[in-house]
Design a protein that fits this description.
Elements lengths: L9 E7 L2 H12 L4 E7 L2 H7 L7 E5 L15 E5 L5 H10 L1 E5 L5 H12 L4 E2 L1 H11 L16 H11 L4 H8 L3 H15 L4 H10 L6
Parallel strand pairs: 1-2, 1-3, 3-4, 4-5, 5-6
Helix pairs in contact: 3-5, 6-8, 6-9, 7-8, 8-9
């Protein structure tokens, strides 16, 4: 697991309008020694005023209003969203805005834990209904994007990026494409540069957000 905060506890803030649901999320966070509950709020607006002065790693938001989530960034924290919103275009907007995980509001604690870890590591995690909703609308087509790359990703680089998303290592990518590992390294370096990413995981995340990797 990556350690953004230097190896300390993962700092988490919880947001939910329902006191009962908020308490449930607080219990999940408090039940794990690796987590630190940095704040708990009844509205995103309260979080907005809190976040700039507090370093957060993950923000868990329980809401059915995407307007609560599509706000100006207040920190670089990864967002885990528990929602019943299922409209594919709303979901794509959420992913483009930086949401890392989208789960049903009725998800069990283990699913929430998986989402926290995935978001913290810069990965994207979607519930099955959410993924199916996207697939029904977009199929194999990439999500629409609003931001442009500093330089166009080539078709071969796109192939390599998709294989990175599959978790393949350089040797496997080289074998599948029939090229040398040195060439694979060259493509990966170019991908990182064009996406402005510092790691493979970040490149995959940015690739999904920019519609380069079908979900």
């Amino acid at each position: 697991m990556s350690k953004r905060n230097g190896g300390g506890a993962i700092r988490i803030a919880v947001v939910a309008t329902s006191a009962v649901r908020r308490a449930g999320l607080e219990n999940i966070v408090r039940s794990h020694a690796e987590f630190q509950l940095a704040g708990s709020f009844g509205a995103v607006a309260s979080l907005v005023s809190f976040a700039p002065s507090t370093a957060l790693d993950v923000i868990i938001i329980d809401s059915d209003s995407i307007h609560d989530v599509l706000l100006e960034p207040t920190s670089d924290a990864a967002i885990v969203l528990l929602t019943d919103v299922s409209h594919a275009r709303s979901i794509s907007r959420l992913l483009r805005s930086g949401v890392r995980a989208i789960l049903s509001r009725e998800s069990d604690p283990d699913d929430v834990l998986s989402a926290i870890y995935a978001a913290y590591d810069g990965l994207v995690l979607l519930s099955t209904p959410t993924a199916e909703s996207l697939a029904a609308v977009y199929g194999d087509q990439p999500l629409e994007v609003e931001d442009e790359l500093s330089e166009e990703i080539t078709s071969r680089e796109t192939d390599v990026l998709k294989m990175l998303a599959e978790g393949l290592v350089n040797k496997d990518i080289a074998a599948r494409l029939g090229i040398s590992e040195h060439t694979v390294k060259f493509h990966i370096s170019s991908i990182l540069d064009k996406l402005g990413a510092s790691t493979r995981t970040e490149a995959v995340t940015l690739g999904i957000r920019r519609g380069l990797i079908p979900i």
